[in-house]
Design goal:
The strands form five sheets. Strands 1, 2, 11, 12, 13, 14 and 20 form a seven-stranded mixed β-sheet that branches. A seven-stranded mixed β-sheet has the order 7-6-16-17-18-15-19. Strands 3-4 form a two-stranded antiparallel sheet. About 35% of the residues lie in helices and about 20% in strands. The protein is of the alpha/beta class. It has 18 helices and 20 strands.
Length: about 525
């Protein structure tokens, strides 16, 4: 047993690294424990086929907080993002296609091929979404008001409530719509073209095991548009070197500040003494003692597998057991001998540098979910394909390419006792066939593939239920109620225990916001003023 640390962090994903940075900057001694042999959690770049490398799980960037980028000086450590020339490209079953992005006027011209009405109303739609997204950007880097925190909760609620109360009435109505309505109901209120609604509605099912008809799915749409790339709001891009370049840069920064990083150090148990978290025990038997234990793993993994039930309040444990997980996600990386050739738009072009979305209508997305609920996987999956090697030749040998395939909907647990270990190859074939239908010859160009079923995502990255968000992004699991009301400000139910992962506000995606907020909550709690306010 070594020297007692100020803080030990379970999990070396990006939020754990961000949290470690702010704590170390304040002078705390910190050690990160990562179960895998590489730092970065789900944001890593690895070789999956000889000579072919790609972002393994997370695969594109937009939501990473500009404040985190600036504070950690990531650009000085090689962080560079190439923005997509257009956002998305959606092939249509009738042989047509729709391009989204590249500027307002260009998108309006594209929309006019489908609906003059939709082109005309687009500026108002963007303005409405941006007004609400601005609120989210501001609240994302603030701890939510926490029920039971006395004067602190009152002050936080007043400050954050004032921001919302000060919005124009129309914006408040839009905010209510986005939090409560289904994506289809919300989009039906704006647009008439099914292709246009699909272009925006896709964001509502990313990492969301739900139909676009599910109430609250409109919020997931909003969650995916409040980011920015290189100062351009709502943009998405490719990180040179893959997503692992982000976490490798973060690791260099924190190690330079004295943070210890231990790889192949899986945590078996949080050590609890007299109702307080005092350290962790590794699977190897090593004990790491610390004044503060911070979990960068999901709430289900932390509370159901790392802490004995007897050590937790009964009501809290009951609610954690009811906490919904399972994002319906299936990830693949494929090595390609050549670029795909889409029948609706043959040849190379900007469309291959965008998010290629195979989900032409909201009905298609709804059916994908219904199939998954009934038989475990979609007959025609929702697929987003990115080909980062077009702009980053470090990922593949000359002439070759790599593609990320992010797919929905696939049940976390297959019905009828079937196993993902048995079904994963068939599911992967179905995904390849789905792309093949729009890009003939795609299957023949695949040299190798890396398959991550929901079960693989859980085994490899500790994502219970394969949930890339660490928990559903539904209204009952957001803001102060993420993961449980009364513990929404990054504090666990045990003294000395904190959470800094995507199972806390503001949720999933490579944002760094939970890590930032958790660190600041720890530092505030350590201050005399923080202790006095909590008693108020």
């Amino acid at each position: 047993m070594g020297k007692r640390l100020d803080a030990v962090i379970i999990g070396g994903g990006h939020n754990g690294l961000v949290c470690a940075f702010y704590l170390a900057r304040a002078g705390l001694s910190v050690r990160i424990l990562e179960r895998r042999d590489v730092i970065g959690g789900a944001a890593v770049t690895e070789e999956f086929h000889p000579g072919y490398r790609n972002s393994v799980a997370s695969y594109t960037v937009s939501l990473l907080s500009p404040r985190v980028i600036a504070d950690m000086r990531l650009v000085d450590h090689g962080y560079r993002v190439i923005e997509r020339p257009i956002s998305n490209f959606l092939p249509q079953p009738d042989g047509g296609y729709l391009k989204l992005g590249g500027g307002l006027e260009r998108t309006q011209r594209e929309f006019r091929r489908f609906s003059e009405h939709d082109a005309g109303i687009l500026p108002a739609y963007y303005a409405a979404l941006e007004a609400v997204a601005d609120v989210l950007r501001e609240l994302a880097l603030k701890a939510p008001p926490n029920v039971g925190d006395g004067l602190t909760a009152i002050l936080d609620a007043a400050r954050q409530g004032r921001r919302v109360a000060g919005l124009a009435l129309a914006t408040q109505r839009d905010m209510l719509d986005l939090f409560a309505k289904s994506a289809r109901t919300f989009l039906d209120g704006w647009f008439e073209s099914e292709a246009v609604k699909a272009a925006f509605g896709f964001d509502a099912v990313v990492g969301n095991y739900a139909s676009p008809d599910t109430p609250g799915s409109a919020y997931v749409l909003l969650h995916h548009v409040f980011g920015e790339v290189n100062g351009n709001k709502g943009a998405w891009g490719h990180v040179l070197g893959g997503m692992g370049a982000i976490t490798q840069a973060m690791a260099k920064v924190v190690q330079g500040m004295g943070v210890q990083i231990s790889l192949e150090a899986p945590v078996a148990q949080v050590i609890v003494d007299a109702g307080r978290a005092v350290g962790v025990r590794l699977e190897s038997g090593e004990e790491v003692m610390a004044g503060i234990v911070i979990a960068n793993v999901g709430p289900k993994l932390l509370y159901e597998r790392m802490i004995a039930p007897s050590g937790l309040p009964a009501d809290f444990l009951r609610r954690i057991r009811a906490f919904k997980v399972g994002s319906g996600t299936f990830r693949m990386n494929v090595a390609l001998s050549r670029l795909p050739n889409f029948s609706c738009l043959p040849g190379e072009g900007e469309h291959l540098q965008s998010g290629i979305i195979i989900a032409p209508t909201l009905d298609y997305m709804d059916q994908a979910f219904l199939d998954a609920r009934q038989c475990g996987m979609s007959r025609a999956p929702i697929v987003e394909m990115l080909i980062p090697s077009i702009v980053d030749d470090s990922l593949a040998p000359p002439g070759g390419h790599v593609a990320s395939l992010f797919c929905q909907q696939f049940a976390p647990v297959l019905p009828g006792g079937r196993s993902w270990d048995v079904e994963r190859e068939a599911a992967a074939d179905r995904i390849i066939d789905t792309v093949e239908a729009y890009a003939p010859g795609f299957g023949a160009s695949v040299l190798g593939r890396q398959i991550l079923s929901p079960l693989d995502l859980e085994r490899s990255f500790g994502l219970v239920g394969g949930d890339i968000m660490h928990g559903n992004m539904s209204l009952d699991q957001l803001w102060s109620a993420r993961p449980v009301l009364g513990h929404g400000a990054y504090r666990g139910p045990l003294k000395g225990l904190y959470m800094c992962g995507a199972g806390t506000h503001p949720g999933g995606g490579v944002t760094g916001a939970p890590g930032h907020n958790a660190a600041h909550r720890v530092l505030a709690d350590r201050s005399l003023l923080g202790r006095l306010l909590r008693r108020g």
